[in-house]
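Fig. S4 source data, part A: sequence.
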Amino acid sequence: MAAPHTARGGRDHWDEIWNERDPTEVSWYQPAPSIDLITSRAAPADPVIDVGAGSSNVVDLLLDAGFTDLTAMDISDAALAVSRRRLGERAERVRWIAADVLTYVFDRRYRVWHDRALFHFLVRPADRMRYVDQVAAALLPGGYLVLSTFGPRGPELCSGLPVQRYDTDDMVNALGARFVLEAYAEEMHTTPAGTDQQFAVGVFRLQEV
């Protein structure tokens, strides 16, 4: 039997990534497209969670925009520590969760769930189904999932792991009937190493029951 998290990387794998690389060297660091999608769908007092946050400065920019109820989550505490150090005293204004998104028991609900470059590491159907259940349970009714993954022409491997690539139909099918697609776009991101990577970005609303 394969070791837990082999396909998507466990805590040790991601701690090693973050201990060896500068935060700006990873493809999911780029925050700009996500910020507009989040701030156009949530008020500053609304709860927002950044899942697979790594050391991205999404929380920094949301704090700058006046958001007051922010959570950053990643399986690697080494990654979150980078953000905490960068924010200094402002880190106290963010809730930090170092945990596996598939097994964590959420104790509250959010207006926006943001994920840039976590979902595409879930190559096993059972893991994707569990992820979708977690999002549905953690979002407020009518809340939004802002999801960025590698697009149909994106890389097949990232950080030494296989990834699942998505177009609009793939995203819709993976998330299921509970989520309504509101917006979709494909964008090219140039990494610090000069490599172009295609991302697919979808905004989904959780249907109110």
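Fig. S4 source data, part B ends here. Strands lie at 48-51, 70-74, 94-98, 110-116, 139-150, 157-158, 161-162, 179-190, 196-206.
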